[in-house]
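Chapter summary example: a protein plus adenosine-5'-diphosphate.
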Amino acid sequence: MNIIFFGPPGAGKGTQAKIIEDKYGMKQLSTGDMLREEIANKTDLGVKMKLIMDEGKLVPDEIVIEMISGHVKSDACSKGVIFDGFPRTIAQADALAEMLDGCSQEIAHVIELKVDDAILDARIEKRLRKEGRSDDNVVTLKKRLAQYRLYSVDVLPYYKEKNMHQEIDGMKSIDEVTTQILKILG
Ligand code: ADP
């Protein structure tokens, strides 16, 4: 089974993905993590993408699609994937559907984690103190949130029309959020 976690920065997608990964033996694929790895390894791609990411902007579609495609083939086509942070555009969503179709797979659920902005601010400040991600600061967060609002109005209706979208309350405790997700996964 392949699922997508959709939600604003700080919504808890990564936390929940790790839990579900362990429970279901699925593989979390986070385009944000992949890009940060490129940055950490100081690859040419990483050096270029850092500028875009620090601005809170979206990395070009071709780059993320190319980056994720090998993983989709190896993981989604075998054990199932939790997509975290991807797709963020219709072009990415179309590319994903096509990649999955290539091995007779599909997305089973798009799970949207809903969280109010004030709570996101508090969470991101805590994450900033703990992890120190270079794109985690109040200014970039505001930009990433603004970006999220822009791309979610494209991507969510795309999945709503296909009756694949379900939303859950991301403001509950970690355990309660997991429970809501498990109910959807059945
Ligand atoms: P967030 O916590 O803001 O959801 P992520 O870790 O998912 O952040 O991504 C961090 C940054 O990486 C984004 O702000 C964006 O610049 C880039 N990025 C990640 N995934 C994608 C994607 N699917 N398309 C375009 N850019 C992406």
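Key point: The first strand starts at residue 2 and ends at 6.
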